[in-house]
Amino acid sequence: MTAVLPSVSFDRLPHAAAVLPGLQPGPEPLTVTAQPVPPGTVVLAVRGEVDLCTSPLLQDALLTHLRHASAPLVIDLTDVGFFAAAGLTVLVTARQAAVTAGVRLCVVANSRPVLLPLTITGMDRVLDIHPDLAHARLCRSG
Asked: STAS domain: from which residue to which, for each copy (predicted)?
């Protein structure tokens, strides 16, 4: 017996994938801002969504700072509303670069969208995670 598969046309996008007329793209989904914090710590404040499309921006910012850093680097993820597997990959890459450079790396995270993937994957036991910037000041020591 031979199975007959229905014919599929790729001339049109499926209805669900159609773009609604008049729909404008929103603001930049991810921003990364460097803030030097005395004495000598750099805080990279991340705002938006970290996913497959935006993670290269985050990775570039982190690796740029780690290449030229001698002071601790704090990654502030408190304003991140979505954190996908690509974000975990970026944090693993940043951690490896920080270890190689001899730079202390800390992460500030306090929301479910960020903490859940970190916990499920066990990254919460690998990274130095703090609930806020005040606690991340401990990043300078040790």
From this structure: 39-142
